[in-house]
Specification:
Pfam family, one (chains A, B): TetR_C_14
Keywords (chains A, B): DNA-binding, Transcription, Transcription regulation
Order of helices and strands of chain A: HHHHHHHHH
InterPro entries (chains A, B): DNA-bd_HTH_TetR-type_CS, Homeodomain-like_sf, HTH-type_TetR-like_transc_reg, HTH_TetR, MftR_C
Strand content of chain A: under 5%
Distance between the termini of chain A: 65 Å
Protein name (chains A, B): TetR family transcriptional regulator
Helix content of chain A: over 70%
CATH class of the largest domain in chain A: Mainly Alpha
Radius of gyration of chain A: 18 Å
CATH topology of the largest domain in chain A: Tetracycline Repressor, domain 2
Shape of chain A: elongated
Organism (chains A, B): Solirubrobacter phytolaccae
Number of strands of chain A: 0
Oligomer: homodimer
Number of domains of chain A: 2
CATH superfamily of the largest domain in chain A: Tetracycline Repressor, domain 2
Chain lengths: 187, 187
């Protein structure tokens, strides 16, 4: 009989991050995570497929935010205006907790398997955005270029956001990166 | 005693590609590849670490071409002028054999493990280019943005090049993608 546990997924995520940071990702088991969270392994598997997915559980929400931003952009928005809206949507979702983002990045940078999973996640996001732009009538190769450019900005801006001391919001850093890119590629 | 085999690596690569296409990557062994090439497994391992690396043996040459293009760019070239030179360098290397590139892409698209390896290769190229731009004095985040933009163009342009019927050179397709990107992101 499954007992309802308040905020089980949040507790598991926190426990996992603490253990990955303390003893390393490889050295942590699902049993360790559940124990630290005061829950059972069975409860863990109700929320996450494995210990890796604790770090990537936000991927679907990220795809959702991206699609919503594209859907809600004005009909006459240019592809790069849609990209700007997508950057805002992504920032609203992952820009809330810089300490968590930093901790997560340290764990990922230490583990090739996680770096690969992160690359796959971002590549997939680019494809989702490309297809969403196509669905709005943006033709190729513009849809692909705009989508890849958006992800380039996310990669560079996110890295900047977690590695600076100033307290700027992620949304501002992404917007600034977009402006810098515009200047950079101006012929 | 190792017998010298003329063009062993080329023969192994051709044999591997033929087998990956005929029976699939997963179903092909190093022994199969060596046999098809009329060589021994021992000879195979003199050239390639494993059957996957047959498809990625060009990665080092690609990094070399990228570094050379950056090194040889005029001192006063803008970051995007350096990027244009890098695109030419990459095209000169991988743009020679469209049939091979197409076959290779079909094999990669069919196998998640190979898609991951390709993503890692391209992400690594972006870092190499970013660092080479930094070494020229390009500051952050411009170095990262220019490097990610270059790889965005390679991804989109390469995909376009192998999926169109017209006989344009890869260098032309990449240059065109760069021009389209400039138009696209112009404020």
């Amino acid at each position: 009989m499954a007992r309802w546990e308040p905020n089980a997924s949040g507790r598991l995520r926190e426990a996992a991050m603490a253990l990955y940071t303390e003893r390393g990702y490889e050295q942590t088991t699902v049993g360790d995570i559940a124990e630290r969270a005061g829950l059972t392994a069975r409860t863990f598997f109700r929320y996450f497929a494995d210990k890796r997915e604790v770090l990537f559980a936000g991927s679907e929400a990220l795809e959702g935010a991206l699609r919503s931003a594209v859907d809600e952009a004005p009909e006459d928005a240019s592809p790069m205006q849609v990209v700007a809206a997508v950057l805002d949507g992504i920032a609203a979702l992952i820009g809330r907790d810089r300490d968590y983002s930093r901790q997560r990045q340290v764990v990922i940078d230490a583990t090739p398997e996680l770096q690969e999973r992160e690359l796959i996640k971002l590549a997939r996001l680019a494809l989702v955005l490309r297809d969403a732009l196509r669905a709005r009538g943006v033709s190729d190769p513009e849809a692909g270029l705009a989508a890849e450019t958006a992800l380039a900005i996310v990669r560079v801006g996110f890295d900047r956001w977690i590695n600076t001391d100033d307290e700027r919001e992620l949304a501002d850093v992404l917007r600034e990166s977009l402006a810098r890119l515009e200047t950079l590629v101006a012929p």
